[in-house]
Amino acid sequence: MTEKINDKLEGRETMTIPVVDRRYQMTETKKAKEIIERAMNLAREEIPKGAVATYIPELGKEDPHQLGICLYPLKGDKICLGDYNHRFTMQSVSKVVMLIVALEVCGLKNVFKKVGMEPSGEAFDSLVELDVSDSKPYNPLINSGALAVCGLLLPEVSFQDMLRYTRNICSDPGIELNESVFDSEMKTCSRNRSIAYLLESKGIITTDVEDTLRFYTKMCSMNVTAESLANLGKKLANDGVCAITGKRFMSSRTARIVKTLMLTCGMYDGSGTFAIKVGIPTKSGVGGGLLSVSDKRAGIGVFGPALDARGNSIAGCKLLREISNQLRLNLFYDPEWDKEQEEDQSEETVLKEMQAKSVM
Ligand code: GLN
Predict the structure, then answer these.
(1) Which of 12, 49, 165, 297 is deepest in the core (most CB within 10 A)?
(2) Is 12 contained in some domain?
(3) Using N-to-C axis directions, what is the helix angle for 252-265 and 226-237, rounded to 10°?
(4) Does the beta carbon of 268 lie inside 6 Å of ligand 1?
(5) Does some domain include residue 151?
């Protein structure tokens, strides 16, 4: 055994330590744009493997072929491509906003009394962990956790306050409640309703359950664009401060907690794989949105409504994966990574998985 370890590790030839050029390439806008354009073409090939969400019937009307991105560096020009200004509902990306406001308004201790900080390894709308005594939702970025957070927020802020804050942090006064998506989800949200009542039975939600559910669903139904998500991501990347106006939107501690949870829990039961393949803290939503934060570098918003089996944008994930290393946005940037042979899931497996799940 020891010999094997020696062969593998110690026995390697000594290499000259490569000097990793960590200079951020986003200042070269033209080059970055070309890289992103190429990545978009590759990402579009993934679209037929996914499907738009239909469990909220109104979302099923979205054209699955759309794809857009906005990358907004802290220094340098904003890059907007494809359907970057198409409006879609924020869905679970709004869990980031709920968490920011809850941490700011209710405080860290109160938030983490109600929810944990651990990845769940379960689907976003899972109830399994809740029927165990003493348990609380794994984290604030899954449905159960966000519903618990809404229970905390409800006595403190109104939906109008949240809408105003979202417009400001996204630098997008055009964000509105999408009434049709809201009505559609309220008619079909029996899973979320069950989660909310279970949380009430455990004393985690102490507010009116139906009001809490409506508040949560309204937050999910806010209409954003990839560009508005990039604006939000840029503020998170800059530790909670707008790089242009200097206005602070949250404490740097809140920004750090949110980014960490996005990295570990933002893509539900796909979070670990995404962290390895992409390495950029990201939060997804079933409307097709992805909010990514390349810390101290850029905010990124992506829109691609065709989803994979876990409810994450299939082309959006591919797009981020393609650009993360080339633009050195990966938290753990590795200059050798491109040479690695990554094993992709075959198309067949992805489709089978999707048929087996309720997301489609
Ligand atoms: N509104 C959706 C739900 O609660 C959000 C889920 C998601 O985006 N993953 O089911």
Answers:
(1) 297
(2) no
(3) 120
(4) no
(5) yes
CA nearest neighbour of 126 among 195, 211, 225, 204: 195
Q: Is the CB of 149 under 6 A from ligand 1?
A: no
Asked if residue 73 has its Cβ within 6 Å of ligand 1, the reply is no
pLDDT at residue 341, as a whole number: 55
Q: What is the reported pTM?
A: 0.90
Which of 268, 283, 292, 313 is catalytic? The answer is 268
Which pLDDT does position 348 carry in this prediction? Answer: 45
Known catalytic membership, residue 268: yes
Q: Are 244 and 197 in contact (CB under 8 A)?
A: no
The answer to whether the CB of 92 is under 6 A from ligand 1 is yes
Q: Is the dihedral of CA 92, 93, 95, 98 positive or negative?
A: negative
Write the CATH number for 93: 3.40.710.10
Identify whether 3 is part of a domain: no
pLDDT digits (tens, 9 = 90+) for 49-93: 999 999 999 999 999 999 999 999 998 899 999 999 999 999 999
Q: Inform me whether the pLDDT recorded for 189 exceeds 50.
A: yes
Mutating to test ligand 1, I would choose from 55, 125, 184 the residue with most ligand atoms within 8 A of its C-beta, which is 125
* pLDDT confidence tier of residue 28, bands split at 50, 70 and 90: confident
| 286 alpha carbon – ligand 1 mean position (Å) | 6
Domain extent, residue 45, equals 25-334+344-356
Q: What is the pLDDT of residue 131?
A: 78
Of the CA atoms within 13 Å of residue 151, those in its CB half-sphere come to 29
Task: Name the one residue in this structure whose structure tokens are 């941490």.
Answer: 103
User: Is residue 18 a part of any domain in this protein?
Assistant: no
